[in-house]
Amino acid sequence: MGVMRVLRCAVGFCGLLLAMSALSGCGASGPNFSPGLMKPERGRALLYVYRPDTLIGIGNADVPFLHLDGRRLTRIRIGGHFAVAAAPGRHKLTTTESLLGRDTGKVRGETTFAVSAGSTAYLRYTELYKSIVPIVLPGVVIVHMEGGAAFESVAEAEALAELAKTRLLEPE
Questions:
Q1: CATH numeric code, 3-168
Q2: What is the dihedral sign for C-alpha 46, 66, 70, 112?
Q3: How confident is the model at residue 136 (pLDDT cuts 50, 70, 90)?
Q4: Distance from first CA to last CA of the chain, Å, rounded?
């Protein structure tokens, strides 16, 4: 095998390792979900926010930030969940975009919801794509995507089945 071929293989392998390490930063890496581990505190509600394990958004190294009533909680990584106690009443949950790991403050998705004392609420975060347009230029293909994000209230049985496939997200 020639020296040039060995160098090309080494560069290709390094590129593959770099791509794999970039993509691995998109997913959650904490402990697996454990049902019944958390209960609502007395006089408060418990909120689970999770992002199912999906391919949508896996190529994006900048993971959105999750906020409850303006307070930053964590990054909402693919295949991750986060539980937080909340006072009874109305709340606002948002995600903001990340650029090179920094919170831009630009809202990507948001919802308002109400919880009562002693209740547990489950909200699924999903990224959506409205359009995907490939732009083909000589020697390169650029993919332009437009979309958004949404939170969806999920029934307990369905949420627990999906949460079983997630890992805990670390707080910020």
A1: 2.60.40.1120
A2: negative
A3: confident
A4: 49
